[in-house]
Specification:
Blueprint: H1 11-27, H2 30-59, H3 68-80, H4 83-109
């Protein structure tokens, strides 16, 4: 859990991605660019939700050794949860899976 919910700053990585976005748009097909945009969307959403979870994890004063991390994770998830955002995250991930499957099948068969 420490790796997921640490105070690490990812701003530099995000800036690097922003710099290459225009190159991606110029070099790749529209469906590939749309997939990259969906990846960026799910990444940003995951970071936001993860940050909320991290705050709840650190603030969880009810954590007891006998609880175990699973129980704590569920409790903190409920405390930090934005169910609509979590559903959006899952929807985008499923959409990405379908699109990546389609793109790789088209690439392999063509």
């Amino acid at each position: 859990m420490q790796e997921l919910y640490s105070d690490r700053n990812y701003a530099s990585r995000d800036q690097q991605f922003a710099r290459i976005a225009s190159t991606i748009a110029r070099l790749f097909s529209q469906p590939s660019v749309a997939t990259a945009a969906a990846l960026a969307e799910v990444h940003a959403l995951t970071e936001t939700l993860g940050e909320r979870m991290g705050h709840a994890w650190r603030a969880d004063s009810r954590a007891a050794p006998q609880d175990g991390e699973s129980a704590r994770y569920v409790r903190c998830g409920h405390q930090s949860g934005d169910q609509a955002a979590r559903q959006q995250q899952l929807d985008v991930v499923q959409q990405l899976g379908r699109e990546l499957d389609r793109l790789t099948r088209a690439r392999c068969s063509g």
